[in-house]
Design goal:
Elements lengths: L8 H10 L9 H11 L4 H25 L21 H35 E2 L2 E2 L7 H13 L7 H9 L6 H9 L5 H9 L4 H13 L4 H11 L2 H28 L4
Antiparallel strand pairs: 1-2
């Protein structure tokens, strides 16, 4: 929505398509969980590298789109900067409070709704209700995409199911894992994922979470701001492709170099 201030259609569209690749606060719980489990001493550097990667991918794709899909669009960018002033403390506090409250409300709503949906998918299966986790609809859905994720280092249905629910909101990935693995504390979840991931596959998973399809709210915003189903589907497809290719490269090249 911030792209509304850009008057030129080409720059506005490029901004809308590139912004989802830059890491947002919703992905931080995933980074904190995996970096805190597998990269205790280097977790700050690992998380920082993800932010740098997101910026680099966004800039690279913006350049690519500018020279291919939008090469025939004219571009003229002139902006008049207003005089800058130190904001008043009360204004700063109100703005911070409103934005923080809005984020907590949005995150809480998505997490609660997503958790309920995930619980239902784990409780109901093709053979009825109250089934074992491995016989649930969630396991079936995750199992369908697990073979596709195996070359990325995390070919278990649990990882696939968590990524599917991440489309609601990236914060839901961690809560999904809590439900799937039947743990309620962060330390317990860390112990569980330590037995299902390696440091290399964990980093590959974080890269995929960074780059794959943005959350439902972002997709809705892209559809509204572009007014085009084509650009919305392109954004989704491009994100999935880029996430898969880069995660594949990270895991396979890391494996070739002897990392595990």
């Amino acid at each position: 929505m911030a792209a509304r201030t850009i008057e030129q259609p080409k720059e506005r569209l490029l901004t809308i398509l590139a912004l989802p690749f830059m890491s947002c606060s919703a992905r931080l719980p995933v980074y904190a969980l995996f970096a805190g489990t597998f990269f205790v001493r280097e977790q700050a550097l690992v998380v920082f590298s993800l932010y740098v990667l997101g910026i680099a991918v966004a800039l690279g794709l913006a350049k690519l789109f500018s020279s291919t899909l939008l090469k025939n669009e004219s571009s003229l960018f002139v902006i008049e900067l207003p005089p800058y002033r130190v904001p008043q403390a009360l204004t700063l506090w109100r703005s911070t409070w409103e934005k923080g409250k809005g984020f907590v409300r949005k995150a809480g709503t998505f997490i609660f709704g997503g958790s309920v949906a995930i619980w239902l998918l784990t409780y109901i299966g093709p053979h009825g209700v109250g089934v074992a986790m491995d016989d649930s609809f969630l396991a079936a859905i995750g199992g369908l995409i697990a073979p596709l994720l195996a070359p990325l280092g995390f070919g278990a249905w649990q990882a696939g199911a968590a990524l599917i629910t991440g489309f609601l909101a990236k914060e839901v990935v961690v809560s999904t894992m809590n439900i799937i693995y039947h743990v309620h504390e962060t330390n317990g979840l860390k112990q569980v994922i330590a037995s299902h991931f390696t440091p290399l596959s964990a980093f590959s998973f974080m890269v995929f979470v960074l780059l794959y399809t943005p959350c439902l709210a972002t997709v809705a915003a892209i559809r509204k701001e572009t007014g085009s189903r084509k650009w919305t589907l392109l954004s989704i497809g491009c994100a999935l492709t880029v996430a898969y290719v880069i995660s594949f490269a990270v895991y396979q090249f890391g494996h070739m170099l002897g990392y595990s």
